Amino acid sequence: MPIARAAKRATARLGAVVLTGALLAACGSGASPDSADGAGGKVTLTVDLFGSFGFKEAGLYEEYQQLHPHVTVKQSDTQDEADYWKSLQTRLAGGGGLADVQGVEVGRIASVTQQQSDKFHDLKAFGADKLKSQFAEAKWSAATTKDGKILGLGTDVGPEAMCYRTDLFQQAGLPTDREELAKKWSTWEGYLELGKEYKKKAPAQSAWLDSIGSLYGIMIGQEKERYYNASGEMIYEKNPAVRTAWDTSVKAAEAGLSAKLDQWSPQWNQAFAAGSFATIPCPAWMLGYVKAQAGAAGQGKWDIAKLPGGAGNWGGSYLSIPRAAKHKEEAYKLIEWLTAPEQQAKVFQKQGNFPSSTGTIAKIADAKDPYFSGAPIGRIFGDAAKESPVQVLGVHDQNVMQQLTNALGEVERKGVSSETAWETAKKGVANVTG
What we know:
The chain has 434 residues and is of the alpha/beta class. It is 42% helix and 13% strand.
């Protein structure tokens, strides 16, 4: 999950998801008080995250503290994941300033398991191996080292869809029905063509999509092999899937379909409420972000449709415990509780972050979100999760992604040619992976 920039994000608790009675009943906790490892029996657990994990918004920290009166949970967060990761690397190298719990984005987990396993605690020491059946196999195995260390528990996954503004579509004379749109943009070519139609009659100061970086990100999430192959070889330069996503993004820029917004910037945040774009590629974790930025005035103006080009996954995260953490045992109890099926269901209910717990997915199949015009998010994202390819992850997955999207930004905002930007991206990748 996704991923956001410097200032603290808004914590609007808008548009609660409508869930079945069975799910709500399943959300009760069976946790019991446990011993503290801090002075005087009181423990302050620090949790350092990026983007929007949804724990605070869903009230999980408050609930945990009520269940465990000796524990206080303090969360810090950074909106932009790249900034967060850079800071985390500095602190891991120095061994100081680390939180008891650190979030890890799925694009970084191979780096943790293959290059930094000595920096994180093996959760198997606390019995985490007993939880394996609770998680999707791909989610579990990605955080497990070759010698069997378990270095993180999964929070969410990022099945993909397309979010769109029905009011802007109406003003431009486009259909608003999610099923009809899914047929019209069943391919990415169809999506761009519909964008050109939108541009002809678009409301003032409104573009078809927010950024070609988000278009590239959502498209590459539909591929099994992206930047690395199963042997660990970096293949992005010769992978036709990467080039297709790149070229499609460039076409969108050249057709003038983008609002040219830098994702996670203050201007991008403001654009959600201003109606600066009509569509945004939308992993499940993006729903909470849309609600927070668009605010109460956006309720009922947004909807969600199936993604062009097939199912995919973008993002998803883990909770890990650094070896330098002060309260490892208490930290483990917290992350085991936060990632349990009941709590994953609550986060989905409030924020839309799609669960990595296999037992939760069936329970949320009938979920709808009134903020997004009653969209059947349980079905839309559930189907995408089932159909998404199991992605091959490499040690520098997120670094490669960042360099490519940065270069696409040069095409989008400065008119740099596609080939010049591609060469820039290659140099950037060499610098960060060499």
